[in-house]
Protein: 2-oxo-hepta-3-ene-1,7-dioate hydratase
Organism: Methylobacterium aquaticum
Amino acid sequence: MLSDDDHRKAAEAILTAERERVPCPLLSKTFPGMEIADAYRVQDLWAEARIAAGARLAGHKIGLTSRAMQMASKMTEPDYGRILDDALFNDGAQIRTDLFIKPRLEVELAFIMGEDLSGPGCRIYDVMRATEFVVPALEIIDYRTEVPRAIVDTIADNAAFGAIVVGGRTIRPFDVDVRWIGATLSQNGIIEESGVSAAIMGHPAAGIAWLVNKLAAVDAGLKKGQIVLGGSFTRPVDIRQGDVIQADYGPLGAIGVSFV
């Protein structure tokens, strides 16, 4: 484990990179003894600083939900980060690309909690019962550190979260089979990616159950009204200024945003 001073230095490096839009050196090289627990502690300190500056915790995100991404990151489970309210966008938004360093975009589902949910022992049906709505969502991911990154770099960097876009049709969790929600992702009129929500650990609520059990270990959980991004079911697409993005979820509607 790193010292408290090293944790603070690492968090400040992420905050500075975020503020100046210049990636910082890899934390895994600056602090070669960094472990997973250290990385989450750095993320905690980053979030505390952002909240102290006026942001509000709006929810959580889950990453590395696909087996391919876990293998690429040499992980055997997902990771998680925070969603802050100053990184929330709606369908139709014009999003400034200079808010990010090197943005990429993924297709996801967002779960809106209808009641508090805590672990341990949380299962998929607990998540479904506690969810009020499921909505189409896009996640913008961004790296505040140099690449290639170790998993501790990603976790410390708030699991690469950049922003969230929500839109389309709001549904209740049992209105449709949420395992089989499909979507296509178009960039400037060309379909670049497609996928189905069952690719998220077999069920898009599985990652959320995992998150609830992980949060229980630090005496935390999900709160009523919070947004939880369940993980991507497409590969990320690089975003550039001038891009127009359309994610079509079929019966669940579509999300359209542009980058300026």
